[in-house]
TrEMBL record, chain A:
InterPro entries: Nus1/NgBR (IPR038887), UPP_synth-like_sf (IPR036424). This is ditrans,polycis-polyprenyl diphosphate synthase [(2E,6E)-farnesyldiphosphate specific]. Keywords: Endoplasmic reticulum, Magnesium, Membrane, Transferase, Transmembrane, Transmembrane helix. Its EC number is 2.5.1.87. It comes from Cardamine amara subsp. amara. GO terms for molecular function: ditrans,polycis-polyprenyl diphosphate synthase [(2E,6E)-farnesyl diphosphate specific] activity.
From TrEMBL, chain B:
It comes from Cardamine amara subsp. amara. Keywords: Membrane, Transferase, Transmembrane, Transmembrane helix. NCBIfam families: uppS. This is Alkyl transferase. Gene3D superfamilies: Decaprenyl diphosphate synthase-like. Catalyzes cis-prenyl chain elongation to produce the polyprenyl backbone of dolichol, a glycosyl carrier-lipid required for the biosynthesis of several classes of glycoprotein. It comes from the Eukaryota. GO terms for molecular function: transferase activity. Belongs to the UPP synthase family. The chain crosses the membrane at residues 6-24.
Length: 255, 304
């Protein structure tokens, strides 16, 4: 009994020291990985500047026709700084991108729509002009403004449309719903509620999180998703590189 | 004064020899390697953080953020890409690639659970995969049957719940029957869950949820006004899981798209696209994914 308390103290101390050692080792691993990312980031920055200055001939002519529809998802913190978004759109126009879906979850860019359209030369609202064709030499860019209300909320509204049709069908008790709940029906219902459903070939994500930030799920089936980092530190070379890499992608669509 | 210092040194020596020793003695079937030691370290530190969380009261934001960095993903989803390419690189047949992929699947599941993950979702066969050559499709279906049978003892021993999600209309009766047996035998297990997506499509998942809600509304079980996002999420196929939305979504082979997997559920999942083929994605690669995951900020569309 006399030895019990000191032994308990010792084992508790050993446990604490052991846990501290394990914790320090895990943090050390984090430091190593962080250093690797820093070094990698430096190399990426150098490469990006080299591309911007035209030192890499591969990026001087990009087959932009493969990129029919581009989407850009912006983190809400970055979306508050519209100037960066405008600069990005100007770069995209220079590269020759014809159609862009601009997304942020809270619709901040939707609210700045007028400013963006007034400031980006050659820009126009996609839904107003629809599928009007312009000559490839014209530096025009159609912009669609998207927010999270075009995602799950839109799917729910569309689902309600299909539901109403289903409930009104006769006789509903014999109908299991196969004729009402198909992909084409839901796509059509989404158009009715204003979710135009332009499916992007490539989604560029600007922000600290490498996720698609709640971009409309129905559109994302085979979209290439590239994380570009924060919009504050965007680089023209990185943008060119991402688009160039996309043009080399071969999808088999699961087959 | 020297006694505490001596004790500390002894403790450190014990830890660095005892830890690997314990590992060897308890896990004789696992090879002794640095990566396994690191895995054990991570388990220990995450448990340490869990204890801290349970004991914490009124901690500051700084401490909470610090603990956030040590959080492990509760639900990891994986798109198993690269089996065919792996086989081509080695001059092997496609079926060899899929067999290697199946073997890797079980090994990686063990690693995931060892790291504290609760749910693992595996995109094993997409709706589009039916368009592949008949031989390959038959090989994959046969692999599913073989592995369900051979791994059943492991699932029961480790108390892993198995759920299979997807459109079952094209699956053979024998495989359906086996799936039913495995799900029934493991349905009561908690804490570890493997969701296997066979003939799964994200769009189909959304549609079947809509259909399910429509049927409930028709039967008077819910009001039309109550049909919202939450109601939708309860009808998606991932409703079988305690954590339906993946924290981390991994797609191997370097392709950077989600290919119709968990379209609804992955809205805020961290996407990780390592340039390694699935049969080569081992514990070291998974450890890197976890480290990478922990380094990211996670904000669900709101400002922190």
């Amino acid at each position: 009994m006399d030895l019990y308390d000191p032994m308990m103290h010792v084992s508790s101390w050993i446990r604490q020291v052991g846990n501290l050692g394990l914790d320090l080792l895990w943090r050390f691993i984090h430091i190593v990985v962080s250093l690797w990312h820093i070094v990698f980031g430096i190399f990426e920055a150098i490469e990006s500047y080299a591309i911007s200055l035209g030192f890499d001939e591969r990026y001087n002519s990009i087959d932009i026709k493969k990129l029919r529809c581009l989407a850009v998802a912006v983190d809400i913190a970055d979306a508050r700084d519209v100037a960066n978004v405008i600069e990005l759109l100007q770069w995209l126009t220079t590269i020759g991108v014809k159609q862009v879906g601009l997304y942020d979850s809270q619709g901040l860019l939707k609210k700045s729509k007028d400013l963006v359209l007034a400031t980006v030369p050659g820009s126009f609202l996609l839904e107003e002009n629809g599928k009007k064709d312009f000559s490839p030499d014209e530096k025009r860019i159609a912009i669609e403004f998207i927010s999270s209300s075009d995602n799950k909320e839109a799917v729910m509204k569309a689902a309600n449309i299909l539901l109403q049709r289903y409930l009104k069908s006769s006789p509903p008790e014999n109908n299991k719903g196969e004729n009402f709940f198909t992909e084409s029906h839901l796509s059509e219902a989404l158009r009715v509620v204003g979710e135009n459903g332009h499916v992007p070939d490539l989604l560029l994500v600007y922000g600290p999180i490498r996720s698609h930030l709640g971009f409309p799920a129905w559109r994302l089936r085979y979209t290439e998703i590239v994380h570009m980092g924060s919009l504050k530190y965007m680089r023209y070379g990185s943008l060119l590189k991402a688009i160039h890499k996309f043009t080399g992608v071969r999808q088999n669509y699961g087959t | 004064m020297s006694f505490p210092i001596v004790l500390t040194f002894l403790a450190l020596i014990l830890v660095f020899f005892l830890v690997p020793g314990l590992f060897i003695s308890r896990r004789l079937r696992v090879s002794f390697s640095l990566t396994n030691i690191v895995r054990f370290i991570k388990i220990a530190t995450s448990k340490y953080d869990d204890e801290e969380e349970r004991n914490e009261k009124g901690s500051t934001m700084g401490e909470k953020v610090k603990r956030e960095r040590h959080k492990m993903p509760k639900h990891v989803a994986v798109i198993l890409d690269g089996n065919r390419h792996w086989a081509e690189k080695r001059g092997l047949g496609t079926s060899d690639g899929h067999e290697a992929g199946a073997k890797r699947l079980i090994e990686n599941a063990k690693d995931c659970f060892a790291m504290g993950t609760n749910t693992i979702s595996l995109f094993a066969f997409s709706t589009e995969n039916w368009e592949r050559p008949e031989d390959e499709v038959n090989c994959l279906m046969a692999l599913f049957e073989t592995n369900f049978k051979s791994e059943m003892p492991y699932f029961q021993r480790e108390k892993i719940k198995i759920s299979v999600i997807g459109n079952r209309s094209k699956i053979s009766e024998s495989l359906l029957s086996l799936i039913g047996e495995v799900e029934e035998a493991t349905k009561s297990y908690e804490g570890k869950h493997i969701i296997i997506a066979i003939d799964y499509s994200g769009r189909f998942d959304i549609l079947q949820a809509c259909k399910s809600l429509a049927k409930k509304a028709k039967d008077g079980l819910i009001e039309v006004e109550d049909i919202n996002e939450k109601a939708m999420e309860k009808e998606l196929m991932t409703k079988c899981s305690e954590f339906p939305n993946p924290d981390l979504l991994i797609r191997t082979s370097g392709e950077q798209r989600i290919s119709n997997f968990f379209l609804w559920q992955s809205a805020y999942s961290e996407l990780y696209f390592p340039n390694v083929l699935w049969p080569d994605f081992g514990e070291a690669e998974y450890l890197e994914a976890l480290t990478w995951y922990q380094q990211r900020q996670r904000r669900f569309g709101r400002r922190v």
